[in-house]
What does this fold into?
Amino acid sequence: MTARSSTTAIIRESFVSMSIGAIIVALWLFTAYASLFVLPSVKEMSVYAVIAVIASRAFLHTGLFILAHDAMHGSLMPAYPKINDWAGRLVLGIYSFLSFNRMTEYHHQHHRTPAQEADPDFYPGSFWPWYFKFMRTYIRDGQGAVIFWGMSLFFYPLILIFHVPLLNVVLFWLLPQGLSSWQLFYFGTYRPHKRPPGGHTNAHRALSSEASPLLSFLSCYHFDYHWEHHQYPHLPWYKLPSVHRF
It folds into this structure.
């Protein structure tokens, strides 16, 4: 491949990644507006409709983090590194007011020392202790205060100024954020890096699921193909099935 064709391929990949990312962000914004300002109060909706809105909002919220995660690896818009980082900061801020620089530093440390003592994401325990340790890592040193005040900046105006029903805010905004964190933790940290009975058998100390591409996408945007992500960290999320060992 010539230098020119290589550059063209990178620009094409950047366009595809940003186009997919724009669709995810647009759907997130649309469902956020509809669930808070268009839909009736949760009390007037059927249980099935409420569950459907919560599930779709949680899935799209997870998508925001996946886009930021790709940006941490420079694969969201590889042809334009500055725009890549700017986009990562934007979607990670929308996700939960998290620091892109800190997340990038921690995530690359995770890739250097997966499932080891120096891995900021690792904890040799069961699901809930590991989850809470994982969360504490990312809210320390003032990050927790940034998240609290950032969330408050949106929460109270929604309730007091725009008169959005409290249950709608809790179930269609706050709950999907919590569900998203559990989804990302389970499929992206706990399940792939939990020590198997016979111990890890590869340098990445990572396991991959055997789910079909459709189920893998629905579970966590192919994040369950986790060995593949560690082996090919430059690949955007939607290309992981292409290197999965079925």
Q: What stands out?
A: The CA atoms of residues 114 and 204 lie 6 Å apart. DSSP finds nine helices and no strands in the chain. The mean pLDDT is 94. The chain has one domain: 3-243.
